[in-house]
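ESCALATION

Customer reports they have been waiting on this structure for their group meeting. Please prioritize. Original submission:
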Amino acid sequence: MQKSLVSIVCCLVLSACSPHFPCEAEKGIDTTSPNHQLTATVVCILCGAMGKDATWVTLHRTGDKYDRSEDLIFTAMQQNRLEIAWIDDAHLSVYCRCREDDVRFQVIKKGGINISYK
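Update from on-call: job pushed to the front of the queue and completed.
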């Protein structure tokens, strides 16, 4: 009995380490920089009855995981339609059809990449 309880607690603790626990991440559109070094990805965070849904944009090395919280450059509450486009290797444009009140986080520069929002 005690071993079962310890196993259950360990599983819960490990799953809580997920960057979007208890929600699920669903990969949306992504676009790779012209030099193919970086990728910007739209990630839909689906929480169902457990919480509020959100939309993320991550900026990560091409081929790396797309849903790591340390790669976040934009977050908004709710599910929003986003368009992302590379202007050149050092400039990314993010267009969100969302209310200003829903925007929770946005970075204008990350690792030498300038990010503009509309």
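Sent to customer with the following note: The first helix runs from residue 2 to 16.
Escalation resolved.
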